[in-house]
Amino acid sequence: MEEQDLEEVLLTRSFLLKSGECIRCNSSSIVELKDEGSSSSITLVVVFSTLVAVCGSYCFGHAVGYSSPAESGIREELGITTAEYSVFSSILSVGAMLGALLSGRIADLLGRRVAMGISQIFCLSGWLAIAFSEVPIYIAEITPKHVRGGFTALNPLLMGFGQSLAFLIGSLVNWRTLALIGIIPGLIQLPALFFIPESPRWLVKVGREKEFEAALSRLRGASADIFPEANEIKEYTFFLKQIKEDGIFNLFQRKYMLLLTIGVGLMAFQRFGGLYAFLFYASDIFESAGFSSTIGSISAAIIQMVGTSLGALLVDKCGRRPMLLISSVGACTGCILTGLAFFCQDIDFGQNLPAILVFLGVLFYLGFLQLGLGGIPWIIMSEIFPINIKGAAGSLVILVSWMGSWVISYTYSSLFEWSSAGTFLIYGCICAAGIVFTAKLVPETKGRTLEEIQESLICTCSPR
User: Fold this and answer.
1) Distance (Å, whole) CA 405 – CA 455
2) What are the start-end ranges of the H helices in 293-419?
């Protein structure tokens, strides 16, 4: 009964509900949401801390984009088959799955900065276990709510830039040089981590209140009034700690089901919708349709940079849901165009039509995907999970996402040999299902504090 009472208090604390809406928390009460001011300045410390964090995102993107431009060079020099290269391409996903099993626990026990540092050490050692990185969670926890989406979008933006520049540079240099270029941001990030503050929310969770206030004051500026925000974070974290549900086995409760469904679902639709087929095998896709892989890779790099830049600029203006829906429709269209290209090739229809359709399909897919679906699931994941389950839930979501990446990257070659057109039509159907999922279940989180978002979602799932 005591734990149930604590949950009731948690679900009805008015200080958490400030978005201007009404949410029914139980059968007999409606809590009105008001808007109150809080410290929301953008300081140089916030900007610098974010830039240091996203150095790891660039390394990640470079590792993801590496396989496609390096494929021909590696296969020629090392003499490996298509099946063997599929194993090589999927190794990154295997390493990331291993990292995902430990990343949340490390971030909860040692802090976000230490987790990013460990991630970078492994990254410099060979690009394995990149999922240690808690970049989007760290950025979401240090930034003011009115710019959180834009700042957190720098994570997918730098990932996209890493992928794009790997495509671009990989068409100009050999695969060994491309690998060495990928470690440069990591060499910058490691020493810089010592000069950025730890996440205030993590500090208060582990009971380091003096450091919490110092970190929040440093992030918001010496002259900012941090009391309302600090009080909100401390009270919310206190009630979550009283419930004591921070293990992996406590995730699967009714009140967390919507959160897990959203987090896991978005990642699953992103990965199984063909993301790593297009990223890892873009050069092969162009060549199979008779289009120049060099021109295609450079064009893909440019369109990805444009898409990720627009996504970062628009995510806090247009909102997460509209961007996800537009992105998913575009990605679905790209899959259909690519599948149609290979269908035309199979029936020998149109001499140059397959090459043109593949070029348009790949650019459509990568451009629209980077606009929203490539990065916004990471933003939403960092926003929806409360601090008491964030580590375990984040690990689960990342594990599922990398399992999807491994399945797609490992099975693509076999699927393509079975049916080149059918492969991309399958990806298109999955993207279409993702559109319905987003429209039905994914909430809008723009302009709300993390505590407001989490409170409303837990409210929705709790028994009434």
Assistant:
1) 31
2) 293-318, 320-346, 353-368, 376-384, 390-418
